[in-house]
Design brief:
heterodimer, A: 278 residues, alpha+beta, 5-stranded mixed sheet, 4-stranded mixed sheet, 8 helices, globular, B: alpha/beta, fumarase, 29% helix
Chain lengths: 278, 194
């Protein structure tokens, strides 16, 4: 593996992720558009689908906010060449796709191009897997962390999530995908919530408790009638993804990360000379 | 898809046509609009305080957007240009309406009750579909860009709109807000669920 190969793969990955909405998200939007009764919401969903088709055909980013680029790298053995390759690939994609230069110094607000966030994880897999979630700020700004107490329990978790979406959901460009991380520590819960956007939309968590919570939340959030773009109707969320992890006996961290309808993600697998992008 | 009826607006807006718009109306916009957000608006307000004249904002439409553009042969092309979250500009907008005389704001997510009050009798809020940047870029062209030192998303872009929309009137000039109406219903639904 060398950094040049990684850079090439990352450039392709970013083109795919920002211009071509994954099929599970397109299907969910189509289903919602067919089901929606509210006239304004129906109209908005059709415009979204038209935009998705146009972006794919023209190979241009569906949304001008090409986001903060969060990467997930997984493999048996890798080194500095992956980090170098990702940074090079981001730079090139920023120019070629193009991506909007979104990173600024938080204090001076000076623009510095695109600075990726990279997460690394070991696996027994001989192939190297690189995934990316380009996620806009409109929805990222609506993230929330609740350090609940164990006594809050399941009902407390649901109440916190419903209240957050009722208050903040409209700015996150609904219909949303809701990423929930429960357990771990404060920062682990937030990471869990974000990473759940890599999971397929149309499957529930095989963990019985988490899967049930996903289904209940999907129904209860949509019953709020916040609706597409916060303008009313029955389509507020496309899917709820709940990920859980062991936590301290005195803790109940609950992290909420909202993803806009543009549930952008792409994964590359590098196995020797063979490269797959999906 | 239902057949939709649009009101066609062109800039500069006339007071009369602003006052006629009602919640839920569908609108398309043609003419010059100004794409600006957090930083450009702050700069306008600051320069305005120093008595500098920012031309062209009287009866103008401002678009809360941070476009993705590409320079090709010395000319800027829009690649993707959907709306950004307007509520970030809540504290800045009353002054833009009262001191600079803007007549419409295009954005997403709506604005505060304070902005709604400032809009009374003179300004409306039009919602564009968040995330639909590729489509918006087909209906808009770059005329001029200023203040690129703020970075591409934060610069002041003068755009030419050719039937930009469809946009929805979600805050009118008579104190009504569709966001407020939905919000009330959501709060009620939330209470009845818990």
């Amino acid at each position: 593996m060398d950094s040049k190969l990684v850079a090439r793969v990352v450039e392709k990955l970013l083109l795919k992720a920002t211009t071509d909405l994954p099929e599970d998200a397109v299907h969910a939007l189509q289903k919602a558009a067919a089901r929606e009764k509210n006239e304004i919401a129906k109209d908005q969903l059709h415009i979204i689908l038209q935009n998705v088709e146009l972006a794919k055909g023209k190979k241009v980013p569906m949304c001008q906010d090409t986001g903060t680029l969060t990467f997930y790298v997984k493999g048996r053995s890798f080194g500095m060449e992956v980090e170098e390759g990702i940074r090079k690939g981001v730079k090139r994609a920023t120019e070629k796709v193009p991506l909007r230069p979104n990173s600024v110094n938080p204090l001076t607000r000076k623009n510095m191009g695109n600075d990726p966030i990279i997460n690394y994880e070991y696996s027994k897999d001989d192939c190297l897997e690189i995934s990316v979630i380009p996620k806009g700020a409109g929805c990222e700004n609506m993230s929330s962390l609740g350090m609940l107490t164990p006594a809050h329990g399941r009902e407390g978790i649901k109440k916190f999530i419903l209240k957050t979406i009722a208050e903040k959901g409209k700015n996150a460009c609904p219909p949303l995908v809701v990423g929930i991380g429960i357990g771990g520590t404060s920062e682990e819960a937030m990471k869990l919530a974000k990473k759940s956007f890599l999971l397929p939309l149309d499957e529930n968590n095989p963990d019985k408790e988490a899967g049930k919570l996903e289904q209940e939340l999907l129904q209860e959030i949509n019953a709020l009638e916040l609706g597409t773009m916060g303008l009313g109707g029955s389509t507020t969320v496309l899917a709820v993804k709940v990920s859980v992890k062991p936590t301290h006996t005195a803790s109940l961290p609950v992290a909420i990360n909202l993803q806009c309808w543009a549930d952008r993600k792409a994964t590359a697998r590098i196995c020797g000379d063979k490269i797959e992008i999906h | 898809m239902t057949r939709l009826k649009y009101t066609k607006l062109s800039t500069p807006l006339e007071r009369e046509s602003v006052l006629q718009l009602k919640l839920g109306d569908r609108v398309v916009v043609s003419g010059t609009i100004f794409s600006m957000r957090d930083q450009a608006i702050q700069r306008i307000l600051k320069e305005g305080q120093h008595g500098k004249n920012i031309p062209g904002l009287k009866n103008a439409i401002i678009y809360n957007c941070g476009p993705l553009a590409r320079k090709k042969g010395g000319k800027w092309d829009l690649v993707s240009a959907g709306p950004t979250t307007s509520s970030r500009m809540n504290p800045l907008m009353p002054s833009m309406i009262n001191d600079f005389g803007i007549s419409a704001v295009i954005g997403k997510g709506g604005m505060s009750l304070e902005v709604l009050r400032a809009m009374k009798g003179k300004c409306v809020y039009l919602s564009a579909v968040g995330g639909s940047g590729a489509l918006a870029a087909e209906q808009l062209q770059v005329q001029k860009v200023q203040w690129l030192d703020l970075g591409m998303p934060e610069a002041l872009w003068t755009l030419k709109a050719n039937e930009f929309g469809s946009l929805i009137v979600t805050m009118d000039a008579h104190g009504h807000s569709l966001y407020e109406n939905v919000s009330k219903k959501v709060r009620k639904n939330l209470e009845s669920q818990r």
